[in-house]
Specification:
Elements (H helix, E strand, L loop, with lengths): L4 H11 L7 H9 L5 H8 L7 H16 L2 E11 L5 E2 L17 H12 L5 E6 L8 H11 L5 E5 L5 H10 L3 E7 L3 H7 E3 L5 H5 L1 H7 L4 E6 L6 H18 L4 E5 L20 H14 L4 E4 L5 H10 L3 E3 L6 E2 L4 E3 L11 H10 L3 E3 L20
Length: about 375
């Protein structure tokens, strides 16, 4: 019987130990045009910190080769923050006393109009994980409506069955984003106290089911600050690598945000410190190991850090972000987490131009100043 992606993944991650790598291992990895799994581990190791500048140069070469100077812009829209999961790191935790909300279709269209007026053509639709209050038909109808205003539509919702992904594709969804949060199975069980998200295996297999259901793109992610960031970065890259090996036609995206404070966060909750340098090392290693993958940089990070990362390794950046339910037109529910970069589309657009980067507003056509609404043109 053919081994599953999960079986191979667990075998490889059990063998991973970043302390075994030396400076020579890092240098040997940097000499290769295509990295294997062991080389990827070397670039994530403490030994690689000494070579961070050389790794950055290599990452930038890879970025320019496969993506040129383009950077995709998008924004998220939370449709609902109702959730059945009790996850200790999340503002939507079912036990948190926050203002819960769900957008009506009239609300959704007003949000879509407000977002599309900024010039954005890619949107990520999100919900809390509650199949009853944000059911499949509600989400699929939101996707249908989004097609009136946007060229690319992503989903970050609860994991679906293959047939449900087929439905989402049929109404216009392009990709799905699934955060494993941490790939440490013991820790995963501890931080997901209750709810359907506690099922590690079902969540792990979500991207494969999405591709089998016809989705053209899938995104992988963890939340740095929960487990060991080097192990979680290695696991994220490995998961994406194994899936793309089986489904070479699939478009792969990566996101590795750091944990940010949130409404209802317990004073007893202690997360692991992950520095900007740590985050940068992980992103650089992922860029070199997965040269064709899109990499997004979160608004959880400082504006200047985000701008620097997209000039070296990342290829997607969000703008005008709200983590509340609605908020682009009218806020209907509390935020999932706090952000550090609240810049609007024009500010991000101009920051990219200042870095000699090209803002892209669709999958197909590079965005220029003329793609923006008349009232947001740069006067310079």
């Amino acid at each position: 019987m053919k081994e599953s992606i999960l079986d191979i993944f667990l075998s490889e991650t059990r063998q991973f130990s970043y302390d075994k790598y030396t400076g020579s291992d890092v240098q040997n990895a940097l000499k290769k045009d295509n990295l294997n799994i062991n080389d990827f581990g070397a670039l994530l190791s403490p030994a690689a910190e000494t070579f961070l500048e050389k790794i950055a140069i290599r990452a930038k070469i890879k970025r320019l080769k496969h993506f040129g100077n383009s950077v995709n812009l998008y924004t998220p829209l939370y449709l609902s923050n109702h959730c059945e999961n009790q996850c200790i790191y999340c503002g939507f935790n079912t036990k948190n006393e926050i203002k819960r909300g769900k957008l009506t279709f009239d609300d959704i269209e007003k949000e879509f109009i407000a977002i599309s007026n900024t010039g954005l053509k890619e949107i990520l639709l999100l919900t809390g994980e509650d199949r009853n209050l944000s059911d499949i038909h509600y989400i699929s109808n939101a996707v249908k409506l989004a097609k009136k205003y946007f060229t690319t539509i992503g989903l970050e919702i609860y994991p679906l069955q293959k047939e449900e992904y087929e439905l989402m594709v049929s109404v216009g969804a392009d990709f799905v984003s699934i955060y494993q949060e941490t790939y440490n199975t013991d820790l995963y069980s501890k931080i997901h106290i209750s709810g359907p998200k506690k099922d590690f295996e079902f969540r792990f297999d979500s991207q494969e089911r999405a591709i089998q259901g016809g989705m053209r793109g899938v995104s992988f992610g963890v939340l740095f600050g929960l487990g060991d960031f080097r192990c979680d970065a290695f696991s994220t890259g490995l998961h994406a690598f194994l899936l793309q090996k089986n489904y070479p036609h699939a478009e792969i995206s990566i996101s590795v945000p750091r944990l940010k404070d949130f409404h209802g966060m317990s004073s007893e909750f202690i997360f692991k410190s992950v520095t900007e340098k740590n985050l940068l090392q992980a992103i650089l290693a992922l860029r070199i190991f997965l040269p064709f993958a899109a990499i997004a940089i979160s608004t959880r990070e400082r504006a200047s850090f985000r701008d620097n990362v997209v000039s070296i390794a990342a290829t997607k950046i969000s703008a005008e972000v709200k983590t509340s339910v609605g908020g682009h037109f009218e806020k209907k529910g509390d935020e999932q987490f706090n952000i550090s970069d609240s810049r609007n589309v024009l500010q991000i657009h101009n920051a990219l131009l200042n870095k000699n980067l090209q803002p892209v507003y669709t999958d197909y056509i590079a965005g220029k100043a003329g793609n923006l609404p008349a009232n947001t043109h740069n006067n310079h």
